Amino acid sequence: MQRDLQFLLDKTHSPLTYGNLPYSISLMSASIYGFNAMTNATDSKSPARLEVRIGQEAKALVQKAADLEGRTLTDFVIAAVLAEARRAIEQHQTLTLSLKDSNAFIEAILNPPKPNQALKSAALRYKQTMSI
Fold first, then answer.
1. Which pLDDT tens digits describe the chain residue by residue (132 residues)?
2. pTM of the prediction?
């Protein structure tokens, strides 16, 4: 009986952490994933699996954060990974110019310089190579 009680109190084996299937998502976090609230992560045509190995301390830290947010470990990890992926993609797809650079860009678009001899030669080589 003592072992059963300890099992229930242990957060890593608590029935609360098994309340959702491993790949289900909560209604609250559905918008984070970009899914309709009635779908789950396995509804795609070819579900994918992502496995990682982390140390016990790192897992405990992530589990504690998931518990504090009232989410399953899987739900928490998926949300964090997707948020970081979106941030990284946005960072690499966004060009931020200073005011000086922005003004120089607009000036070059509105008043482009006349083509010099090197540009004319390059354009001619391109046309000959591409048979234009």
1. 344 444 444 444 444 444 444 444 444 444 444 544 344 444 557 778 899 999 999 999 999 999 999 999 999 999 999 999 999 999 999 988 999 999 999 999 999 999 999 999 999 999 999 987
2. 0.46
Query: Cα angle vertex 50, ends 45, 52, to 5°?
Result: 175
- Between the alpha carbon of residue 131 and those of residues 66, 101, 123, 124, 125, the distances in Å are 61, 36, 12, 10, 10
